[in-house]
Inverse folding.
């Protein structure tokens, strides 16, 4: 994860979380989001599997646990947080459906963001016979941590199947800012999309 200086989307996520909330940040990287939320009086825990990122969180005073998102989210009790955040990480886990299901159990509210494989630049590269590369998909095909690619119309039914209700969809541009077109032609225009969800229970 890069610094929040280069992640305007983290400011968008922070704006969606009320002051004083308990937040679990899955795939927290260097703890940029949680450090931002501390200024709002939120308490939080980060989760990451990479020892260097865990150490970076500890050095800046961010509470963090080293766990595997695919297999160890059962360590968290039901409704133990107000919000669970999964930012640009869903595409890297082996079992996206299971991870989302665990998020729904751990907190009433979830925030999920994910690159949009159907963005127009990605479509153009495919038409040219090349694998997509962009700011949201910056890796060569042989060196990518991304295991799953999806479009917005493919991602959103999965939320519905898991009884995760979409409260807001915020399409983002390549720099992580809310897209100026909003939800107009989002599957074509958005480089990635951010979702505020709540568990239907």
């Amino acid at each position: 994860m890069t610094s929040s200086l280069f992640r305007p989307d983290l400011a968008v996520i922070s704006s969606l979380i009320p002051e004083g909330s308990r937040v679990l940040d899955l795939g927290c990287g260097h703890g940029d989001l949680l450090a931002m939320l501390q200024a709002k009086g939120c308490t939080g825990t980060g989760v990451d599997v990479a020892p260097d990122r865990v150490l970076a969180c500890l050095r800046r005073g961010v509470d963090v646990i080293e766990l595997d998102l695919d297999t160890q989210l059962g360590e968290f009790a039901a409704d133990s947080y107000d919000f669970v955040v999964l930012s640009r990480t869903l595409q890297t886990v082996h079992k996206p459906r299971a991870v989302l299901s665990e998020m729904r159990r751990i907190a009433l509210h979830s925030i999920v963001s994910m690159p949009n494989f159907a963005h127009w630049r990605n479509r153009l590269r495919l038409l040219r016979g090349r694998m997509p590369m962009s700011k949201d998909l910056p890796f060569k095909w042989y060196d990518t941590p991304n295991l799953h690619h999806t479009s917005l119309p493919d991602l959103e039914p999965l939320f519905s199947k898991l009884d995760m209700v979409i409260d807001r969809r915020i399409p983002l541009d390549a720099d992580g800012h809310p897209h100026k077109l909003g939800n107009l032609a989002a599957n074509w225009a958005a480089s990635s999309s951010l979702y505020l969800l709540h568990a239907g229970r």
